[in-house]
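Researcher: I'm preparing a figure for a lab meeting and need a structural model of a single chain. I don't have an experimental structure, so a prediction will have to do for now. The sequence is pasted below. Please return the structure as tokens so I can convert it later.
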Amino acid sequence: MWGNDNRTVFYTTPDEVQRSYRVMRHVLGTPAKEDVVLYEETDRKFDVRIFPSKDRKYLLIECNSTNTTETRVLSLDRPGDAATVLIPRQPGMRHNLAHREGKWYSVSNLKGTNGSLLVASDAEGGIAKWEELWPYDEKEALQWVEAYATHLVVGARNQGVPGVFLVDAATMEKRWVTAPVEGASMDAQDTPDYQTSTQRVAYTSYLTPYTVADLDLKTGTLKVLKQKKVPSGYDASKYVVEKVEATAEDGVKLPVWLVRRKDLPLDGTAGLVLDGYGSYGSCSDPWFDASGLSLLDRGVTLATAQVRGGGEFGRTWYEAGRVLKKEVTFTDYLACAKRLVELKYTAPAGMVGYGASAGGLIMGYILNRAPGLFRAVVADVPFVDALNTQFDPAIPLVTGEYEEWGNPEDRAVFDAMRRYVPYENVKPQVFPSLYVTTGWNDPRVAYWEPAKWVARIRALHQGKNPVLLETNFDAGHGGATGRYAQLEDVARRYVFILRELGK
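Model: Understood. Here is the structure written out token by token.
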């Protein structure tokens, strides 16, 4: 990004394990070898990002680990200055910052786990005492704040529903706005103009194609700018979206979203694909997938389990399925699967589990613990050898993920991971049909994890169901590149699912 002199450029660089760790300063017309190191992060659990305050007053240098944030600032009017610490790191303290009219605004866990909105005066690049702008409410899980000339926009999950609070900067009156469709995800999009009267947002749902809209900051009304077209004669009225609740082992209610054909009988005969993730605080909200219509039209229900370890109900939901509590994520998923059978959306003969990356770890767990509950399982680039990987800090991302999975050098973490990691717990039994993918160039889940896992399953498998491994020698973590290659990937998965379900 640029300094306000239009001559100074700031940029970040990665280390040997692709961790963004250094902020550099370059002046146009000078040799690159003279670029100055503005900041270097030596703690391998942290990475670094840079961004400007919306009003172009400051460059912010944000250092983040899973649990902790530290922020430095530099005046963009004085780009040659040194960066100063604005909020020093304190273990477990997280914040998100915005600057407006001589004040700093922050969504922080200073007053509560799920975040509250704070304000403090700007003391020339420093911060005075923080004050709450409205009382902490755990049901309002605040995520981030943006500051514009007339309004603040605060991203949140209000009782599990994604949306934004629009806050009049003069009166502090707030308005809650969500997507205009049921069961939707909604995210803010880049809106760089400090003087804007609208916030760009995007939303989607099982039945709503990806939609970009402008949200009026004063009225809260949405103006649709663009909606992705589905050229295949898509008719949303043929389908129905439903939400049910499962009960976890400890009594917590777990949301499950479903989409199916309206004429599909609820008698347990339908096939069903249950997606799960539940890691890193990521939210598994329903989204529109045109490819999925192929399954829906063949009588297969699609479902998404919102399990702990994700962020659907804020940081408390995430903390309940992390490190020593990680196994909760997997037992939550099993509770959701069992509930769908109870409600006759499907039966074990029609249940297909699906998970990718960390969601693939769920798939490995259920194969070991409840293989009879599933007809088949699809695991894309699955993180199934997590214990061995976390022992090797030379592998990209490992040290940064100690706060997600734990460091197995700690005996308590080792014992916890040893209980749930799929590769460590494969035993002789009859396995459901299994379709596993991996990418030769995957920097996140190395190809040998799925490969050795599949080899162990094949060695101990006591049945005749197929155990398939697809290795793409040109792909990384995201699968094949190119539109048609990606569609071929989807087609192969769907052929496997439909064959297993007898469709």
